[in-house]
Specification:
Layout (H helix, E strand, L loop, with lengths): L1 E2 L5 E9 L5 E10 L2 E11 L6 E2 L1
Antiparallel strand pairs: 1-2, 1-5, 2-3, 3-4
Length: 54
């Protein structure tokens, strides 16, 4: 699960990470305030200092 500083969370299969900490997820699902907003499929999250990833 990747949590952004704005509160969105993304859960999916991590397919790649580069040296800038950009993260690519497959089968990604977005959560806002703990509730799923839907499945997005493949997403790229550009590096923004995240308070939590795990």
């Amino acid at each position: 699960m990747i949590k952004l500083k704005w509160g969105q969370e993304y859960k999916g299969f991590m397919t790649s990470v580069d040296s800038y900490m950009n993260i690519q997820l497959a089968n990604a699902e977005e959560f806002v305030d703990g509730a799923s907003t839907g499945v997005l499929g493949e997403v790229l999250i550009r590096y923004i200092p995240a308070p939590y990833s795990g």
